[in-house]
Amino acid sequence: MRVARKPRCGQRIFTLGIQKPDFLDTQKLSPRRASNVAMLSQSIRRFTTSAVCRCHYEEGPRKNLPFSVENKWRLLAIMCLYFGSAFAALFFILRHQLLKKYGCFSSSI
Fold this sequence. Notes:
Helix content is 50%, strand content 0%. With 109 residues, the protein is an all-alpha fold. The longest helix is centred in the last third of the chain and has 31 residues, at 72-102. The termini are far apart. It holds the Pfam family COX7C.
């Protein structure tokens, strides 16, 4: 009989009603293959659990953003560069297409 254990650090137990595939069912396999499958599943579980445990992030608002919002002027400059580059790309693409269509590749436009 298998005893349910508590999840370790950062490990979540999902039960979505998904059954094990037949190749992982150890009762249908030979004993040697069943032990190999069990060892593989244990090593995968240990690796994923340890990978989750190694990543400790601060929690709270504004802590999971890929940029800093502490300095509002730096944030303004970053946002202007980000949105400005996307806006300018439209005009560069248009210029490229016009130069390509009319066949003049000089930079005198």
